[in-house]
Amino acid sequence: MKKCRKCQKEFTPTKGLVNYCSTKCKCSRDIKSYAHKISDAGIEYNHVNNEYNFIDNKYTKLYFKILNKSSLADYTEKHHVIPRSLGGENNLLNLRKISAREHFLCHYLLTKMIPRNNPDYYKMIKAFMMMKCTSKGHSRYFNSRLYESKRTEFSKSMSKLQMGEDNSQFGTRWMYLNNETKKIKKEEIEHYLTLGWKFGQFEKPHKQKRHVVQKNKIVELCASANNMTLAHRQYIAQYGMVNIKTFISHAKKLNCYKPNQSGKGTKKYKIKTQDILNGIHNTPIKSNNLKDRLIYENILEEKCSECNLKMWNNKKIPLKLIFIDKNNNNYKIENLRLICLNCNDQIK
């Protein structure tokens, strides 16, 4: 049998109830508030200010004002009144349950309560920057200005805290053996030296430098070659690898690219125009198709043979192919001429 700490009744301890007779007594146990415990331990504002070198300013007063009032929030977090990094103990006398917002503000106030020339200042900066960490249970708002003001101080604090023997890489050396490179701790260096390791890092072979396109050679090859594919192959054989698209883009910028060098995109006819004009092929052909051939192959100039006009109101004049002897099957060049519609009407 055992006495309950709350109601002093005797009860038989169970697995979930060791010191209390019921869950009611356990949940409503009479424990002094953290504010009373702080005062009972002698942690008062003046005492703390002298012992922990807190600055006597409004931030220090506000810090203890927040901790001495009871929190009514549903969600609370534990906060050490005197931070562990400053020598505070991890017991009920140094703990206080406060809301997440109050916890955030308290750590911000701690950065204002310690002089900047004090090494403990950097510890408070680091602790405050850790307040931006979130979890599923809670999240904190960290605005950009507040982050910027403390992030610069945090980088300085980390550089000072990582100086000398406090640095995790203090005393380590780079060593290599064959193609393997490692960073060896100070106490293990002698062991690795006996195994044949050497100081330094293994130098990997440098990557092949990027090919520099020789523009003057592109101009020469494009002028001599019949097509761009041949010019590209000659360039690769003489000066190194380059992509065909890259080669063509440089050729266009240098104004040495000749489109349709292989005949791609040009008009190709089964029956040559000269054979039609010479009477070798007597196959009938439409006058409009023959007119387009004669203009495309520059056999006849695209202008009216009567008025010599090419344009009218900045537009091409529509032309008609006529046969002088009125024989539509006589395709000799002497029997053909181009005439505009206006002149054609006048002749009629």
3D structure, described in words:
The protein has 348 residues and is an alpha+beta fold. The chain folds into 5 domains: 30 residues, no CATH class; 134 residues, no CATH class; 32 residues, no CATH class; 39 residues, no CATH class; 75 residues, no CATH class. It contains 14 helices and 11 strands. The strands form 5 sheets. The protein has a 3-stranded antiparallel sheet. Strands 1-2 form a two-stranded antiparallel sheet. A hairpin with a 2-residue loop joins strand 5 and strand 6. It is elongated and about 135 Å long. About 6% of the residues have low confidence.
Key phrases:
5 domains; alpha+beta; single chain; elongated; 11 strands; 348 residues
What structural class results from the helix and strand content? alpha+beta
Q: What characterizes the major β-sheet?
A: 3 strands, antiparallel
The tally of helices reads 14
The global form is elongated
Lateral strand order in the biggest sheet: 6-5-7
Give the helices and strands as they follow along the chain. EEHHHHEEHHHEEHEHHHHHEEEEH
* CA-atom Rg in angstroms: 47 Å
Rounded to the nearest angstrom, the distance between the terminal CA atoms is 137 Å
- Tell me, rounded to a whole number, the average pLDDT: 78
Percentage of residues in helical conformation: 25-40%
The tally of domains stands at: 5
Oligomer: single chain
Uncertain ranges: 28-49
